[in-house]
Amino acid sequence: MKIFKSTKLIILLLAILISACQSNTQSNEKVATEPSVFFKNIQTGAVLASPFLVKMGVEGMGVEPAGRVNNLMGHHHIIINSNFIADGDIVPADAKHIHFGGGQTEYLLELEAGNYSLTLQFADGLHQSFGEKMSKTINVTVR
User: Fold this and answer.
1) Domain containing 80 — which CATH number?
2) Residue 88 CB neighbour total at 10 angstroms
3) Which of 2, 25, 70, 122 is the most buried (most CB within 10 A)?
4) Full domain range(s) for residue 93
5) CB of 103 within 8 A of CB of 116?
């Protein structure tokens, strides 16, 4: 009987010790998210009156004016009715590619009535695109 009680006590102590040594699955550390860009105030399918305000957001990177080249920094571009720019390619300077080289995060966009795809593209200080991973495309209707 004494051996049985001692064995139960040893098993209980071992169970407590093992559970105390196991790693805690909950952590107070922030989980690193992949950098991304997003439209803050417009979602795909939106019907908008022109001109409309576009608010641009970025996570995991910072915004700075063109001309500066710093790690994890860049600036926004809006591409109208065209696809993202491949990683490392220069964002063209034309009517379909609106540059925000001043580090702007808001823009009053004026478009004629119609259906549009708007692609938010992030690029470095030399306008070299960060590629598809740093782009977001939505479809909107302008009335």
Assistant:
1) 2.60.40.10
2) 11
3) 122
4) 36-142
5) no
